[in-house]
Specification:
Length: 312
């Protein structure tokens, strides 16, 4: 019998149990802390932000399913068993949610909504006439599962869409593709609305520092829904205060929740969302997990297996 060890703090596990049992009625669902003992036999873990050291205590775990596409919540555990396979979430719910969030955010920055929210507080009627979408360059950092769907969602509005990835991609109609560290500065210089959809890795941490953010044309905006480690927040704040960067939407932060005394809370033209850009949906995720357990049991590689060398 397939045994799933589930871990998620602060939220009910019932919907997860029900969704998994709906797809696979014969599994044994064990909700933390009722994980039993390693001698109970082989199990799969399905977790979000497990306590450091927890997974190492269960050598019976064959593979770990991350409740999210990001795996930094697992890899930062110093006791994570080195050869434990980790499978990143890749359900349709995440892609749909991120497409909505990016479309909403790009439209808001294009139409100057963050600055209107600031003006509204001051009862300021100052009008802003946005350029046509076909004159707005949207640059997406990351052209993986989420970057691709976000880019395609923006095309019908008429935006000039470009994307940047680590490796070269097959051409996609309507999207200008760039890759590699050497092309990053030119990519940023040609972008009016920069969207971060990168994982947190040694290469991406602090990538958007003062030097790179200053390459954006004056009046540009930033949306970050990948990981908060991408942006040096003090640099972003300084460039927004001096008016070089017109606005930003940040869904992710190096420390979450963003501390209550963090100066970003009071910054004009900044929209803060509490890491909700795309949420894994129990129904689609349950199908994804069970499909991939079947693949593993048949001796096949699961989808979205973490490549520890790349870090994503
Ligand atoms: P993917 O692995 O499918 O895509 C990652 C993309 O980033 C790829 O295009 C990859 O390039 C690119 N990339 C990684 N490292 C570099 C680098 N050094 N230089 C240039 N490009 C790089 O991941 P997803 O699209 O599924 O998810 C992206 C991230 O979004 C997740 O890791 C997670 O952190 C975050 N996320 C945030 C959510 C939220 O609610 N805010 C929800 C879900 C995910 P290449 O294609 O060449 O490999
Ligand atoms: C994820 C997230 O990684 O929600 O899926 O951040």
């Amino acid at each position: 019998m397939t045994r799933i060890l589930f871990y998620l703090e602060d939220y009910s596990h019932d919907i997860w149990r029900d969704s998994l049992l709906k797809v696979a009625p014969n599994i044994e669902f064990r909700s933390y802390p009722d994980w039993g003992t390693p001698s109970d036999g082989p199990a799969y873990a399905f977790v979000w932000e497990p306590k450091p050291g927890l997974l190492a205590k269960y050598p019976n775990i064959k593979a770990v399913f991350s409740l999210g596409a990001g795996v930094d919540h697992l890899t930062r555990d110093p006791d994570l068993p080195p050869n434990l396979p980790i499978i990143r979430m890749g359900d349709d719910g995440l892609r749909e949610g991120m497409a909505e969030f990016v479309a909403m955010s790009v439209l808001m920055h294009h139409r100057g909504i963050p600055s209107m929210i600031t003006k509204q507080r001051n009862k300021d009627w100052g009008r802003f006439f946005a350029p046509a979408a076909k004159h707005v360059r949207v640059g997406i950092l990351g052209f993986g599962a989420l970057g691709q769907v976000a880019a395609k969602t923006l095309l019908p509005f008429g935006y000039k869409v470009a994307a940047w990835s680590r490796t070269e991609k097959e051409p996609v109609e309507g999207i200008t593709l760039h890759h590699g560290a050497d092309s990053l500065d030119a990519f940023i210089s040609d972008t009016d609305i920069l969207v971060g959809l990168l994982p947190s890795t040694a290469e991406t941490q602090g990538l958007l520092n003062k030097k790179r953010l200053s390459l954006l044309p004056k009046g540009a905006s930033i949306v970050n829904a990948g990981r908060g480690t991408l942006i040096v927040l003090d640099d972003l704040k300084a460039l927004m205060e001096e008016g070089h960067i017109a606005g930003a939407t940040l869904d992710v932060f190096p420390e979450e929740p963003l501390p209550r005394d963090h100066p970003l809370w009071g910054l004009d033209n900044l929209i803060i969302t509490p890491h909700i850009a795309a949420i894994t949906r129990p129904d689609t995720a349950a199908e994804y997990v069970m499909r991939n357990i079947a693949r593993i049991e048949q001796g096949n590689a699961p989808e979205n297996l973490l490549d520890a060398n790349r870090g994503y």
